[in-house]
Specification:
By secondary structure, the chain is of the alpha+beta class. A four-stranded antiparallel sheet has the order 2-3-1-4, with helices on one face. The model has no long low-confidence stretch (mean pLDDT 84).
């Protein structure tokens, strides 16, 4: 399974009832042996240019794991899904993975350092 980043632009009228299309995408991914690692709803935003006569869209970002042979199938289904205005699926480069690993390592070391008393505090 490969890691991918996927951003989906949903029709702006779905802002109040976004759960149904989110579940539809989750089912689409699970049906193709994929899974959602992280989901981030960015909300309704203005588009740089009109898409299907729409000036706004609801942006949702996903970190997903998916087999490489399933990507084309997911893309073809997203193309015919009425709720989706646009989508983009990209595989993050190795430099992104290195940055994420360093961030995780630094957050682990920061929390362990906080639990240890500082030298000045022990001498008092």
């Amino acid at each position: 399974m490969n890691k991918y980043e996927m951003t989906v632009l949903y029709h702006p009228d779905l802002e109040m009832d976004i759960e149904k299309p989110l579940k539809k995408i989750a089912k689409l991914l699970s049906d193709n042996d994929g899974k959602i690692i992280k989901q981030d709803n960015w909300g309704k935003r203005k588009l740089a240019y009109s898409i299907n006569k729409q000036d706004h869209a609801v942006y949702v970002y996903y970190d997903i794991e998916l087999k490489s042979e399933s990507v084309a199938k997911v893309e073809s289904i997203l193309n015919i899904t009425d709720e989706v205005l646009r989508y983009l699926i990209v595989k993050p480069g190795p430099e992104i993975e290195e940055v994420e690993e360093k961030a995780e390592d630094s957050s682990n070391t920061d929390s362990s350092e906080e639990s240890k008393p500082k030298e000045d505090e022990t001498k008092k």
